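Sequence and structure are kept together here, with a separate record for every protein. A complete record is shown below as an example:
=====
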Amino acid sequence: MSATQTTQAGERLQSSRRIVVKIGTTILCGIGEAVRDDWLATLAKDIAALRADGRSVIVVTSGAIALGRRRLGLKRGLRLDEKQAASAAGQALLANAWQKAFEPHGVTVAQVLLTLEDTETRRRYLNARATFSTLLEFGALPLVNENDTIATSEIRYGDNDRLAAHAAQVTESDTLVILSDVDGLYTADPQRDPSAKHIPVVDAVTPEIESAAAGPNIIAGVGAGGMASKIAAAKIAGAAGCATIIAPGAVNHPLAAIIKGGPATLFRASGNKGSARRRWIAGRIKPAGTITIDAGAAKALARGASLLPAGIVKVEGQFRRGDAVIVRGPEEQAIGQGLSAYDAGELKQAAGCRSDELEKVLGYRRRPAAIEKDDLVLSSEQGE
C-alpha cells in the first residue's frame, strides 16, 4: 500500500509495525444483522497487504450478539441472560465469517475471548500477552472479542472500544484503528450542527475534545459504541504509547483508504510505551524476590537477551509469575529488575537447566525464558 495524498493518519498507519483494528457491529453487519461478506473481503485484503509488508495485525470485532440474536430468533431489547445466549450462538458464526474472508489469503484466524480481568489481573494479563505473542509468531490473525457469554455485569456502551484499547496495551501495539460510521471527530455533532468542522489531528484529549463527542449511535439499534467511548479508548491506548485513528469503516478497503489520504482523525499517543513500561517495571512495583545469575548470563543480558534458567544459580523469595524480582550478578550486585515468567517454586526446580531439559524437570512444555527481554530493565537503562 502506498499513500497518494499525505495525511498524518495515513502516515501513522503506514509507519506502524503492530496494529489493532476494531470493527463495530454496525460496520460489520449493517442493519440487517448479517455479515457484509463482500465488504469484509475488502478489509481482509487490506489486512493481508499489511501483513505481507511485515506488519502484525490484531482484529477486535463486535457482532456476536447481533448474529446470535438473528440465529436464535430473538427480538431486540434483550435481558442480560438473553444477550449472553445470543453471544454464545453468534461467536461461531462470527469466527467462521472472518475465516472465510481470510481463506483466499492463506491466513489462519484464531479467536481470543477476553474479559476485563484478563487485562487487569497481572497473571492473566501475562497469559493473554503470551498467547498473542505466540499466535503472531505462528502467523495467525488474532480475532478478539469480549467473552460476553460469562459477563457478570450488563454489556455497556463502548465495551469493545475499550476492549480494543486494552488489546493494544497487552500487545504493545503502535496504532489502534477504530473503524466507525463517521469519518473522525468533529467540533460538534455533524448530524445536528451543519457548521461542525472535522478535526484531523488531536494532540491531547482535553475536556473540550471530550465535550465534542456525540452520544451513542442508537439509530441502527445493533451497535453499542458512540464517539465518547472511542475517545475513552483513545485515552487508554494513548497512555500506553499507542496512537488511535478513527476512520470511516463502511467503505470498501477502509485501511487502504486511510493510507491513501482518506478522512480520519489521528489521536496522538500521550505516553511513550517503551519508557513508561521501563519505569513501571523498574520502580513502580515492589520486588518480591531475587534471582542470582552467573557471569555468562549477565553478559547475555547486557547484549539484550532474555534470561534463561540455565544461567540461574540461586532463587530467593516467594514470588509468583508476573511478580517483580531483582536480578543479581555473580558478585551479588544488582544488575536489573524484571517480571518473572515462573513461580518461585518452578524456577528453583528449573535453575541451571538447559531449555531442552525443562519439560522433563517441570513435567510440561513452556516458553523457556525465566524473564523475557521485554520484561527486564537493566540498572544501566534506568536512567534513560
Residues 126 and 270 are 24 Å apart (CA to CA). The longest helix spans residues 80-102. DSSP finds 15 helices and 15 strands in the chain.
